[in-house]
Amino acid sequence: MNMRGVLCGTIAALALMLVPFPAAATEGYGAAEAKALVEKGIIIPMKTVVQKAEKLKSGRLLEAGLRKKRGLYVYDVEILDAAGVVWELKFNAATGDLLEIEVEKD
After folding, report:
1. How many CB atoms within 10 Å of residue 24?
2. Domains and CATH numbers, the chain
């Protein structure tokens, strides 16, 4: 992983800690939109999903985002483990259920 990737991951992790509602969203889902979805009860807070991801894979949070895929809101979480492997965890944003876990492919 290059320094730019490490820096971007660190910034994303800091942003998650500073913002009290879902942030770092992708595919058009910004913080305000994600917050509105949480307030309407459509999705759960990103913080809840990140905590679940960190229990499943220990390491450093690199990135987390919200997107919609085939009508389903999905949280994508990337974690860097102690061996330097980046794990991608995908969760149903409405329920928090784990949908998929895999090693990031370049």
Report:
1. 24
2. 3-103 (3.10.450.40)
